[in-house]
């Protein structure tokens, strides 16, 4: 069983609700510092933020992924300019479902070019909407395009969020070359532990306190 500190060190404490206000983001940051989590993840319009000692992540092409690659790249570049350390981009799910994996790779590569190291790029594949073969193909495209992580879900798709099966398949596909972020619907300590056992190396949580409370401090 992982410790509180081990799990906290893998959490992106997340607030992406459309109705979120600046005050809500301030509360998120304060809670992130109190909990000792690794990062916060907020909408790009909330940048810049002051979050001492906390990694700042934001989203690009969110939540549909149906944005032109040039727009995603510009959004990523602006976010980096405004202090983001990490970018979580959404692929074009329709392109993946249509078998246009080269198009998916080009989309990721465009954002990667706008997100130079040391910034990290996480690629949201919306795994619940894809079959296993497409999950594998998209993860391979993310590797080829130079991403740092693959991520299960936006948390907004009606198909659902993270699953142990998808996380395990993604982890098997990318091996040690990329991280795997499980996100979407992880609300309990048990669910978080299951994702870590499946191979997740990062957790996207909106209810981080509830998850961490189950581990003791």
Question: What does the secondary structure layout of this molecule look like, with pairings?
Answer:
Elements: H1 4-8, E1 11-15, H2 22-35, E2 39-42, E3 55-60, H3 69-81, E4 86-90, H4 93-97, H5 101-113, E5 120-124, H6 132-144, E6 149-151, H7 164-174, E7 179-183, H8 189-198, E8 202-205, H9 208-213
Parallel strand pairs: 1-2, 1-8, 2-3, 3-4, 4-5, 5-6, 6-7, 7-8
Mean pLDDT: 97
Radius of gyration of CA atoms, rounded to a whole number: 16 Å
Q: Major sheet, described briefly?
A: 8 strands, parallel, barrel
CATH class: Alpha Beta
Low-confidence stretches: none
What's the helical proportion of residues? 40-55%
Helix/strand structural class: alpha/beta
- Named at the architecture level, the CATH assignment is Alpha-Beta Barrel
Sketch the topology as an H/E string, one letter per element.
HEHEEHEHHEHEHEHEH
Task: Give the amount of beta strand, in percent.
Answer: 15-25%
Q: Count the beta strands.
A: 8
Tally of alpha and pi helices: 9
Spatial gap, N to C terminus:
13 Å
- The outline comes out as globular
Biggest sheet: strand arrangement:
1-2-3-4-5-6-7-8
Whole-number tally of structural domains: 1
Q: What is the CATH H-level superfamily?
A: Aldolase class I
CATH fold-type name: TIM Barrel
Pathway: Carbohydrate degradation; 2-deoxy-D-ribose 1-phosphate degradation; D-glyceraldehyde 3-phosphate and acetaldehyde from 2-deoxy-alpha-D-ribose 1-phosphate: step 2/2
Function: Catalyzes a reversible aldol reaction between acetaldehyde and D-glyceraldehyde 3-phosphate to generate 2-deoxy-D-ribose 5-phosphate.
Protein name: Deoxyribose-phosphate aldolase
Pfam family, one: DeoC
